[in-house]
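Chapter summary example: a protein plus iron/sulfur cluster.
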Amino acid sequence: MTAGPAVLDTPSRRRAGAGLRGIATVDAQEVDRSARLAQMRSGELGSVHSWELVTAVDGPGTRLTVFLSGCPLRCLYCHNPDTLAMKDGEPVLAEDLLARVARYRRVFAATGGGLTLSGGEVLMQPAFAARVLRGAKRLGVHTTLDTSGFLGANATDAMLDDTDLVLLDIKAGDEETYRRVTGRSLAPTLRFGRRLAERQVKVWVRFVLVPGLTDDPANVAAVASHAARIEAVRPGTVERVEVLPFHQMARDKWAELGRTYELGDTPPPTPAATEAVRDVFRAHGLTTY
Ligand code: SF4
């Protein structure tokens, strides 16, 4: 099992970091477009929004969380709308990112932490992610992938072999609600969850509780059933479920980007409502925070 409740500060939905300080970026002017695309295809180069050093969120211990740019979903509550377009990220070489990972090896070892790839959607850039995960494993660093699972088919088996933990966002329990929340289909996420269990990759299921959007009891029950089914494929897979109360911290970002934010009047769920939803997951025998 991973770290117990004592270290837990149940994260509200994570916001991307402030920038790329300390990680070299490639001067786009210096490399012509076709060379850059070839480097991206091979995974040498990625489009990265920012990174942060965090503790007790994004996986166990102290983590270097790297936010990749680009996402195929359009969640109404997206907390990182500035990561949605891959073209808005900064070009970063995998080897430069890994040099930063290497610098924190001692911190990771002391805290049981490691590297977390987040976004945006990491699996928009599978070759880059695979290269970084491989490099991190070579350094002996614990690896975590934070994903919606919608592009799970992009993850090769080799990539999953280099992934110790997946933070799997199940954003809704049925196709209709999932489409309303994200604009896309739920089925790929569920397929990916089963595959993770079959390949013995540990999973933390995440569910964002949004009043009036995802808090319908039937929807909550369906998400809990999906999580329980992943666990049933291989008991011990779902190490925990995190029910994350919706917050308004991203509202300003949406405004800055000139995008219409539909949840401007949505309140956070009450602590009692959040706890009641956690109990639904617990009723399936799932460790839930
Ligand atoms: S999966 Fe949803 S919440 Fe996450 S970055 Fe994409 S649009 Fe935003």
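Key point: The chain has a mean pLDDT of 92.
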